[in-house]
Amino acid sequence: MMPELSVVLPCYNEAGNIRDILERFRPLARQADLELILVDNGSTDGSAEVFTAELARPDNAFARCVKIERNIGYGHGVQTGLEQARAPVVCFSHADLQCPPEDVLEAYALYRKKDQAASERSQSPADFCRGLLVKGRRSGRPLADSLVTWSYNHLAKLVLGLQVVPITLDGQEHPPRAADINAMPKLFARELIPASCGESADFTYDLYLLELCRRKGVKILEFDVRYESRKWGKSKLAANPWVRLKTSLNALRRILLLRLVIPTKAKPHPGESRDPGVAGPRLPPGRRRNGHRLPPE
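Above: the chain's sequence. Below: its structure in token form.
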């Protein structure tokens, strides 16, 4: 039987968190018809053995593991998990439990609230929700991290025009603002899954997805979430200053590249034709956009 919601968590060397992840999601699976897809993203810390032992338990039947032999990047892990999703609504988040799993159901409740509102306005809920993405906005983070995030988010707003509509849990919307690009969770219709992660197989996947949605006219709603402290392991991004600098420079590069050109195909639901999407006028080879020469299509 097809679940209503598929939740994807890319796991890279998160062996110490796997049991806690399942324990936190277990009551959620009793509240909603969801499947949990845990992506073993090329882990080398014995995660495979933990997955085998934990997923053999009957009370974890709601979860399954997708194995990637070699780690290519965070974005590749997310994309692989999303492609394995069976539900019409999909969501992804982080496996470090800094994003509370309970926020997934908060996002789903907001998504369904908008679905119901569309029905009451005699607008097709299916068509409406294909043009909707619900995501979190972080609070309670260290000042240094918040400053770096603020710069990244506002640069994306300035260069790409990427912004979101803040929303409260009771469904009240507020004026647009810059997106908290890397905040979790992110929940949307399966039809919005990109055809591939392209050049964003790394930590710029979130930027790529949001910009793809913006160009397709998708409404992005953002609600407040509070990040928790990591209980096990270390951040893959903040491992050392060099990694953080390299990641920041790569994010800047991706913003500039997305300003020039972006693939626009989306992943179709099984049995449906592929919709190439709309991303503004596509110019012939050799034409220029914003003063820059575009590659042949």
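The chain has one domain: 5-274.
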